[in-house]
Every structure is written in C-alpha cells, then in structure tokens.
Fold nucleoside diphosphate phosphatase.
Amino acid sequence: QAGSSLLDLTHGIGGLLPRLSRPANHSRIHYAVMFDAGSTGTRIHVYTFIQNKLPILDNEMFQSIKPGLSAYVNSPEMAGHTVRMLLKVAKQTVPRVEWKRTPVILRATAGLRLLPKQRAHALLDQVQHVFDESPFLVPDDSVSIMDGTNEGVLAWITMNFLTGHLSPQSQKTVGILDLGGGSTQITFLPKLRKTIESVPSADYVARFDVFNSSFELYTYSYLGNGLMAARLGALGALGAKGTVFKSSCLPKKFRDEWSFGGLTYQVSGDPEGLSGYKPCYLEVQKVVQGVIHQPHELQDTSAFYAFSYYFDRAVDAGLIDGERGGRLEVRDFKRRAKEICNKLTSSPPSGPFLCLDLTYITALLKDGFGFKETTVLQLTKKVRNVEASWALGAILDHLHNMKIHRGDETFPNPVTCDL
Ligand SMILES: Nc1ccn([C@@H]2O[C@H](COP(=O)(O)OP(=O)(O)O)[C@@H](O)[C@H]2O)c(=O)n1
C-alpha cells in the first residue's frame, strides 16, 4: 500500500510533483523508520523523503501486527520477535546501500504506560536488542515510551502537515481526536486566550516550532480512556480478577473471554438486569465524569479530524465507508448507539461490544470533551495514502527537532497569571 503522492513539508498536499520530475540523483532520497508500539498492535512506518531545501515526503510503507507488545509481558522475547518480523518491511523498502544511514525508532504508547515500569522496560530491552543487531542506524533514545503530551501534538502535526495547514501562509489548522486502546488524545490550536488560561494544569499546553512557525496548542492524553481501557472501566474490571464482569451494554445471553494488556477477563451480559442504551450510558459515563476536562472553546467552526477507534467503530456501525471515511455529527454516534443497544440480541452481527463502544464514544464526546451534538467530525484513516497517526509527526520531530515543550516550563500558574 505504497503512497504515491509527493508531499511538500510546507505545502502539504499542495506539493504534488509528477513522477517523472523525480531527481535523478538518488543521494537526495532518504529514508526513516518509525515503529508505533500501541496497546492493541505494533506498526511500522517506512517513510521516503526527498531532500530539498525543505524535505518532501514521497512515500509511506505501512504494516501492522496484532496484538501489541504489552500482550507479551510474560514472554518479552516475543516482543523482539514482533519487531524483527516488521523490520523485514524496512529491508524490502529501503535500498541496501541506505540501511546504515536510515534511522530506526520505536515509540510505545498507552499499552506500555499502563504496565509496571520494570515489565515495560523488559519488553523495550528486547526491542533495543533487535535494533542493535539490525543493519540500520540506531540513534540515541531510539526505543522509549512516548510522553502522552507528545502523542497528541505529533498527531496534530501529522494531520496539519498532510492537509496542508502547516505553511506560514495557512490561516487555519485542524484539531485532532485520537482514540487508542489505552489512551485518548485531544489537540487543537485555541482561538481564545481564555482556553489556555483556564486549563486545569500547565501540562495541557504544549509549545513548539515547526518550519518557521511557532504554535501553542491545547493538548491532553487521558490514560485509561482509550476504548479498550474504557471497556474495562465500564465493566468495573480495572485491576480486578477472578469473577465474571457483567454489563448492561452487552447482550443478555452473551458470555465470553476477553483479553487486553496481557490479561484475560470473563465478561457477560446481565441476564436478570437491564440492558439497552440508557443503563449502558450510565455505566460508561462513570469512565468520563470528573476525568475529562472540557476545554473553554470547542466551536463548530473549528474542524476536527477523528481517527483510530473513532474511525474503526464508525465503519463497524455502518456510519461511514471504510475506504473513503466521511463527515459525521456527534449525534450520529448517539443515534446509532441507541439503535444498536436497544435491540441487543445474543449474537449481534456487528459484534457484542459495539453497543458499549458507540455509547462510550458518545459519552466521551458529549459529557467528556463537551462537544455539541451538531459538531462535525471528519473521520479519517489516511490522507493521501499516508496513515493518520502520530508516527509521521514523530519522525518529522526527530529529523527537524521541533523542541516540543510543555506549558509548565514557562507557564508557572495558568489560572492566575496575567497573559
Ligand atoms: N497507524 C495506525 C495506528 C493505530 N490505528 C488504530 O488505533 C486504534 C488503537 O490504537 P493503539 O493500539 O495505538 O492504542 P494506544 O496505545 O494509542 O492507546 C486501533 O483502532 C487501530 O486500528 C490505526 O488505525 N492506524
């Protein structure tokens, strides 16, 4: 699934060049490899850049493997094996002569953040070993757990780059909503000073420079509010073991095993209790209430791109096309959640968790972030054949050092300081 467009860093999709105009001098082409070690899967992105005054993204090769590294918490060598398998994609994509100057980097997200430190590091040590044995360039800090603040910022950079909004001439930018398995991110460029002034803590603000522009973003990553972690929260299963977890969001006669983060849970519907949208909403609400901060501004006018599980579940629910994506209003998730939850059978064709998942997405958007029911979201998997993910932003940061820093470094007291 190689991308074919040439993306100019300053003009995003505007920088389309015809294939024949490729520079004959191959030394101007270079490669970079980013692994995304997510809670539900590990993915490799192999980027091809053309060196220009500013580099141009020529192509992305992408492949993924399930489950994520955290599933191998009791057999860390399998984590190394996963990465070794995916590195084959890099070997096939990058010409052999370029291997020793092609950087390989792995960043882990919520799956490893949720594990005890020692166990997470045992997994990362295996990955480091595979990198060190590989013929690629292994920079300092090539394998680590990414800071949650950066995850949102880097996804914002990816989407604004791919949609052509990072150029100094661009007047507007797009916000991002990323729903992973373990964590969820919201990031946007505030229009109102009040939005920055009224954040609950300084780590909701990030500043950085990119291609001669400086940005100050509202951004936050909520650990434990990814879709899989939210299922556990709704079931009351976080940290608990050895029982059957019942939910009014699951079909009454449903009972099965379900695994996440290296643990397996017994889950079922509630045969004697309630089922349907209303009781389910009450269950999922407790996962967001008092947890998610509502930003001061979330106007309809600011465009939000939503991807990862927002996209996948919108496809599963038949709300958008899996190839083209599409635009949805927040209330479309709610309407479909009601339809699915209110006729839960023992084995719905859409899968037993769809009611829970859509209800959680509705609660997260409305009661969590405080979006209006009529807010329009652009559901996206790829832009110009490049994955909607933080990975491209992360490689751009590695290549161009954007000096991302959190608000607290220069922002002593956001509530009282006079800006
Ligand atoms: N390049 C990617 C990366 C993740 N995803 C989706 O993101 C969701 C899970 O994200 P994740 O496993 O990285 O979770 P976190 O570790 O970020 O919480 C799944 O729906 C994946 O299919 C994607 O569609 N494309």
About this structure: The longest helix spans residues 77-93. Residues 247 and 269 are 5 Å apart (CA to CA). Residues 7-146 form a domain with the Nucleotidyltransferase; domain 5 fold (CATH 3.30.420.40).
